[in-house]
Amino acid sequence: MINNLQVKVLRENVLKFISERETLVVGEYNYSKTGGATLYGSCYALMTLHYLNNIPTDAHTKEQWADYINQWQDKETGYFLGPELEEGTIDGQTHNLIHLKLHLTTTVLPCLDLLGYSPKWPLSFANEFLHEDSLAYWLSCRSWDKAWLEGNNLLFVIQVLIFCRDVEKHPQANARIEQFFDWLDKEIDPATGLWGTDGHCNSFIAMCGGYHQLLAYYYEHRAINYPEKLIDTTLLLQHPDGGFHPNGGGGACEDVDAVDILVNLYKLYDYRRPDIRFSLRKAVESIVEKQLFDGGFAYRLNEPFMHMGIASTATPPNESNLFSTWFRVHTIALASEILTDTALSNYSWRFNKALSMGWHRHWSHIDNKITILDRLNEIDKRIIICFIKSNLQLCKKNIIYRLNKFKNNF
Q1: Do 270 and 361 fall within a single domain?
Q2: DSSP labels for 312-360?
Q3: I need a surface site. Which of 55, 287, 346, 356 has the fewest CB within 10 A?
Q4: What angle do CA 109, 322, 288 make, to 5 degrees?
């Protein structure tokens, strides 16, 4: 179990890693030790500081940080185009320039909100999504064969539509939001509670994608379709080592995708809660073990990383970067919402206030305390499920792993 000292050291080391990435310009951060300054770096540093309740409080610093971010907005389109999106700096094989512009812009929006500011210019590019026919056409072009990629695209668009409704006050936004959810509801697979598993992709890819649009369901208080199937599907994806990468070792995105689903559904539905708590404990243990000596986190250990083909985010193996550190801290903060009997709940973790990756709705730790009886009910039933629904080889691997862990503790 994670103790107070471990949490304290983890937080202090993350803060040290972030401070060492700061340049002489307020709000500007290098993406990693070897990487240069990026707008992504500024945003991930800000959000991580916010989660750790360490965001600057003086008005002048906030204004300077917001000015740094807003200088990168394109007046004509409203997109935010940091130095990392300069022509010739991306490979474009998986993520095209439009995807990257949407990704960076929707990363910026909650950061400006945290600072108490808004974009300098309207999001003119959003006009495409505010018309019924053009939104219908855009939705029809989604391919569930690439459910992970499409999950990002879908979150971008619903996030922008909600921004248009709540901040820019577009009268068409409400109707387009309803249109968006109506389409999603018709596309879901009843067997898993996800999108794409009805013959297009496997449940792992669908889970990593579905996390994104599910955020909008929670934010808008929309009913979750087939929540029990969704919980079952997600729990089955956990590797014996605690992460959610099918090959072991976890991943900054993969782990937060699964943990966010489990945490939100735990709060909304009284189904398999002991199993979810057990799963979250294993996930947190595996993440804490991966913190590097520099205080941050890599996306995956022993592997190089480059964020969506953007050259300026290239990071060598076992070197921390701000993107992965942000997501790792976010995952730990999410688990702390449920694991109220651990040292994690002794700290004031925070989340984004505006819909985005990083948004989450708090609930009361006092009203949701885990009791001794709750802990006794935390039996790892995944092995039994594995015997019924999967193959003997995977079950054998799971059992051997747990026996070895048990022997090593004595």
Answers
A1: yes
A2: GG-B-TT--BHHHHHHHHHHHHHHHHH-TTSGGGGS----BSSSSTTB-
A3: 346
A4: 120
**302: amino acid identity, one letter:** N
Residue type, 180: F
Q: Is 196 left (phi over 0), alpha (psi -120 to 50) or beta?
A: left
- Identify whether 200 is part of a domain: yes
What is the span of the domain harbouring residue 308? 4-115+226-379
* Total domains, the chain: 2
Cβ-proximal residues to 352 (8 Å cutoff; 6+ apart), any chain: 47, 50, 110, 113, 114, 358, 359, 360
Task: Tally the residues of the chain.
Answer: 410
The token pair at 239 is 């590797």
Residue carrying the six token digits 């709750």:
374
Q: Supply the DSSP string of 236-286, one letter for each residue.
A: HT--TTS---TTSS--HHHHHHHHHHHHHHHHH--SSHHHHHHHHHHHHHH
The CA distance from 286 to 256, in Å, is 12
Is 384 among the domain residues? no
Query: Do residues 87 and 129 share a domain?
Result: no
Q: What is the mean pLDDT of the chain?
A: 92
| Structure-derived torsion over alpha carbons of residues 284, 289, 290, 295, reported in degrees to the nearest 10 | 100
CA angle 24, 27, 32 (to 5 degrees): 75
- pTM, two decimal places: 0.90
> For residue 5, what are its two tokens?
């000292």
Instruction: Tell me how far apart the alpha carbons of residues 350 and 205 are, in angstroms, rounded to a whole number.
Output: 28
**In one letter, which amino acid is 109?**
L
